[in-house]
Write the structure tokens for this entry.
Amino acid sequence: MAFTLPPLPYAYDALEPAIDKETMVIHHDKHHQAYVDNLNKTVDANPELAGLSMEEMFAKMSSLPRAARNNSGGVWNHTMFFDGLAPADQAGAPSPALAEAIDRDLGGMDKFMADFDAAGLGQFGSGWAWLIVQDGKLKIINTPNQDNPLMDDAAEPGAPLLCGDVWEHAYYLKYQNRRADFLKAFWSVVNWNRINALFAEATA
Ligand code: MN3
């Protein structure tokens, strides 16, 4: 069965002013759609991928063709990214359990946000910043291209809670070269309710 593009869980302009409508339209309808289309083409061209979910591909990523990595990662990471955001008035706040873990593992909320931004800024070229649970603890990592922490050859494996897209297409229309300003605005639309739920699941 072919992969399909999940709809955005909010309106295209719902994240303004942090992320503008035009960027969201292009990012979701063009970039994310292209990864879905290319993943389906890759599956058609590689019979060993038939019937696999993206998570099943990640579990044996190192033995699959490069196109499977780029396109399954591209689809999955973008869904994770868009679901990880919410209109500012619906974004919630860290749960007591998550806040405690952020203090314990990441040195507090301010340091967490600064280190997450640094992971995004420090990713040379295109890639992603991540908050993950690794061995029961929170950790901030980054990945190049469309790699993610679920892939079998991930340098830093873990359960993803939040990702920040630091490909230029995620911010260039509004922020041009100012990746740091984009990451700062990103925090105003982070979906804490979802992170809380994923954290509870990953540490259950
Ligand atoms: Mn992107």
Notes: The domain at 20-204 is CATH 3.55.40.20 (minor pseudopilin epsh fold). The helical segments are 21-45, 54-59, 66-83, 96-106, 109-121, 172-175, 179-186, 192-202. The two ends are 32 Å apart (CA to CA). The longest strand covers residues 127-134.
